[in-house]
C-alpha cells in the first residue's frame, strides 16, 4: 500500500485513496507550488472547485509536472450560484477551460442548493454521458438529499464528499452511502487541526510513533474513506501520507469512533446560506 493505492467507484473508475485538497490555497504561486510539490512526492489526486478560484493554477501545475494527464485524478465542483441545468453545463465548460483539460475525473455538485440540485445533477449525468467526466457525484449531501436525488437520477452518484473527521463521523450519512454504493470522501479530514491535543489522538500517536494527523488519516484509510488533506507545505504533505508503515488495531479504531460528537466545523447543509428566500 502506498500513494498509488486506489478505491474502485461504482462505475469501475479507480480513485486514489488519498489526495491533495486546495481549498483556500491562494491562486497563483501558492497553489501552483503546492500541487507541484504534491505531485513530486507521489500524490496523484488533486481536488479543486470553481469556488476556489485556483483551477487555472492547478491545471498549469499538472501540465508542468510532465506526468501524463491520465495518471492524475482531478476533481472539481460546480458552485451554488452556477447551479441549474444549463447553468451547470456552462459552469463545467468554464472549469474545463480554466484547467485546460479535455475532461475531469470527478465532477461534483458542491452543495445541495434547494430546488436546484436535481436539475444540476441531470446536467452532470449528460456531462458523464459525453465522457467529459469519468465519474460524477455530490458533496455535502445528507441522506434526505440523496433520497430525493435518487428518485430522479439515472446514474447513482459515485462519491459523496462530506465534512468528516473524528469529532464529526456522520454515521447515518456513511451508512446510507454504503448501502447505495456511494463512496464517502472526507473534506476537512483533520478537523482543521483543532483538536490534535485530544487525549485519544495523543495516546495513539505515542503508541504508533506517529503524529495525530497521521493517526486520523490512517483511520480514514482503513475505513475505506477517500481523504483529501490540504497543505501548501511540502513537509506537511509528506507527513500526511507517511501512513503506510503501520496499522491501527480494532481497539484503536474503536477509541477514535468514541471521539464522535457530530460536531461540525463547517456549515450544516440544511442551514447553509444559499441566498434563497
UniProtKB/TrEMBL annotation:
This is Diketogulonate reductase-like aldo/keto reductase. The lineage of its organism: Bacteria, Bacillati, Bacillota, Bacilli, Bacillales. Residues 27-257 form the NADP-dependent oxidoreductase domain. Belongs to the aldo/keto reductase family. Keywords: Oxidoreductase. Substrate binds at residue 110. PROSITE patterns: ALDOKETO_REDUCTASE_1 (PS00798), ALDOKETO_REDUCTASE_2 (PS00062), ALDOKETO_REDUCTASE_3 (PS00063). The keyword Membrane does not apply. The record marks 77 as: Lowers pKa of active site Tyr. The keyword Ribonucleoprotein does not apply. The active site is at 52 (proton donor). SUPFAM superfamilies: NAD(P)-linked oxidoreductase. It comes from Gracilibacillus halotolerans. InterPro entries: AKR, Aldo/ket_reductase_CS, NAD(P)_OxRdtase_dom_sf, NADP_OxRdtase_dom. Pfam families: Aldo_ket_red (PF00248). PANTHER family: 2,5-DIKETO-D-GLUCONIC ACID REDUCTASE. One of its GO terms (molecular function) is oxidoreductase activity.
